[in-house]
User: Fold this.
Amino acid sequence: MFEQVFKNIDDILHKDAGCGSELDYVEQTSWILFLKYLDDLEKDKETAALLSGKTYEKIIEPQFQWTTWAAPKLKRKRQNKDGGVTELVEIDHNAMTGDDLVDFVNGELFPYLKKFKTNAESANTIEYKIGEIFSELKNRIQSGYNLREVANLIDELRFRTHAEKHEMSHLYEGKIKNMGNAGRNGGEYYTPRPLIKTIVKVVAPKIGETIYDGAVGSAGFLVEAFEYLTSTGSATKNGLTTRDVETLQKKTFYGKEKKSLAYIIGIMNMILHGVEAPNIIHTNTLAENLSDIQEKDRYNVILANPPFGGKERAEVQQNFPIKTGETASLFLQHFIKILKAGGKAGVVIKNTFLSNTDNASVALRKELLNACNLHTVLDLPGGTFTGAGVKTVVLFFEKGKKTQKTWYYQLNLDRNLGKTNPLNEKDLAEFVELQKLGLSGAEGESENSWTVNIKDIDQTTFDLSVKNPNIPEEAPLREPKEILKNMAELDKESAEILNSIKELI
Assistant:
């Protein structure tokens, strides 16, 4: 049902002058999907309150509630053939539409919801997040008639059961993914879901630990960590306790995002996945001076994929002891600093970080190896990030112990990755299994994996580049003189063969 509704909405939006691309689609549908989700959430809370003998006061005032402006209903009774009466609830087709609807949404609804930010008790409330969302987004569906059609379609959706919410969030994730595939920065908006799941499995966060992503984007890492903790916690004998649920809702997930749209998509993605008031801040993470980070600011777990290839201004670089314009290298310094002692991290970074010879890269590798135990490096094939055009590795490290040895795994697939042939969890299954063995001291080696003693690497450059010793080295390229000599010999042989053929004719 969700998929067909999304397709119908897509058709409508492509007719609207203000829409068209996947980016537009996500921006246009986010606010209206969110309001329908919020309406169902309030209904659930109202029902729960009634069952416990309490009353529930809705967040949204009556004139701005979904059932007032988006999908007002009419009730009528129908006489059945058997003499019984059926009560029907139908959409009121005299509801606002056209210019009236656009004027209401732009001139009344959005300004009303925007005020929630200043009126909220604290930033850790859903009211505050509502205000943030509607302070950043605008309604860009220009036709009130198209907006009416979209509202009617979205009203068909239900967000009442876990299965319904899961299907909705899955489809929404697909739209975010397409933002990357459509030429947008795939590394910025969307990290492949199988890779995120694998990173979360390896890092293995626990309920009670704080989880942080300083380049949160669409919040894929935080969403997947929430799913992981919810499923692993529920799998225990007694399942999640009330305290566990409250901890996951309010004291577990933290993020920062610089760009406005990515920030809003991240908040909404988390809310649609079940985290009502995500602790995501709209800020430039790299504007924070590392020397200002105190123990109270640190986190137990870091999961992140910082932007590829970005360049930062000189004034931003002054916030870091190792000066560099490379955004990812600045983020890595930030992550090392903000991770608690004993904390765990899984960070995606360009594979060139392992071998770059510039002073900043050498200094950063040295800092990472001295401040943390870089226990695992996952080397990913080209095409893992659709449209990004770079090769990447994942660094897994724990803070507080120097690196003694590092276990490497090179993901070698029998196919080329791309938009129509993406990475999947099965591709990474061997890595997950062998990584557990390798860290436990058991046999974790294969033709795709090996261990490097850090004392054996160059102690001047700290080169950590991926060189699989299990794959035979290719024969070295021949010298030009040797190639010319071989060509001459082949030409001589060819001439002799031609002369032999001529004599036979």
